[in-house]
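Example with several molecule types.
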Amino acid sequence: MRCEVCGREIRGPPYYRVIEGGRLTVCSQCSKFSDQEWDPRRPQARRSPTRRRSAQPKPRRRSDIETAESLELVDGYGMIIKKARQKKGITVEDFAKKISEKESVVKKLEKEDMNPPLNLVRKVQRELNINILEEAETGTGAVLTRPMGPRTLGDMIKIKDSTKKEE
Ligand SMILES: [Zn+2]
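Resulting structure tokens for the full complex:
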């Protein structure tokens, strides 16, 4: 089973989270985007007559996904990662294992040869105790709004949601 947010194979039990109004089955990393759960055993009852329409709009919490739109990687983040890793005295291989990624992913990261998804960046930051994200300005860093190809996380979720429309 694959995570409906990041697309990775879900290791361990899947999490059921309502993200941006869509019911998604996600990995433990992406479960952090939302703490609203849904019950996979219960069919989606959208048109229940008892449904109340709330008068005021839902307060939109600033989720990680939205935050991602305004974050970018700092210049030279690859070198920062590499130096922090070397300072810890761990090899690329060991580091890859620690963050459950492939060695090739770590190598690409350190060479700045990829546009890493936010959850990967967060894992790296946590593991190495560094900060390689900054608020986006008009600067030049690699912007994190396109973690995989032309779609943003937000787009993917919207697309998921629209496919769930009944009728
Ligand atoms: Zn995920």
